[in-house]
Write a structure and sequence with these properties.
Blueprint (H helix, E strand, L loop, with lengths): L2 H14 L2 H15 L2 H26 L3 H4 L4 H16 L9 H7 L5
Helix pairs in contact: 1-2, 1-3, 2-3, 3-5
């Protein structure tokens, strides 16, 4: 990836990992310039957000209680990996699901 693309999109990529509001803000900011680096991380974060919702629903409806709360660590660890990638200026896909997130949300960005 070109250094200019990364440097121009890095702030938007980082912002996208700061809650779902940050993702929406980054998406709106990226709407005009269509920076590929920022789009990559926005897609990753949308996928992570939806994954966290699915995990929470599984915990709730499967009545897993406190022991199931450890499942919430999965999206959190993946979020850390994505966030560190954005800070380092890398297009680092989250393990296992990153390719799917890029494919499912390819229309974004």
């Amino acid at each position: 990836m070109e250094n200019t693309t990364v440097s121009e999109g890095k702030n938007m990529a980082i912002i996208s990992y700061i809650t779902i509001i940050g993702t929406v803000v980054a998406f709106i900011m990226n709407n005009d310039k269509k920076n590929s680096f920022a789009s990559f991380h926005i897609r990753q974060m949308i996928g992570l957000f939806l994954l966290s919702i699915v995990v929470s629903l599984i915990i709730r409806f499967a009545n897993l209680g406190v022991s199931g709360s450890f499942l919430n660590l999965i999206p959190f660890v993946l979020w850390i990996i994505g966030f560190i990638g954005a800070i380092q200026g890398q297009e680092k896909k989250v393990p296992v699901l990153g390719d799917m997130f890029q494919d499912w949300f390819k229309g974004i960005g």
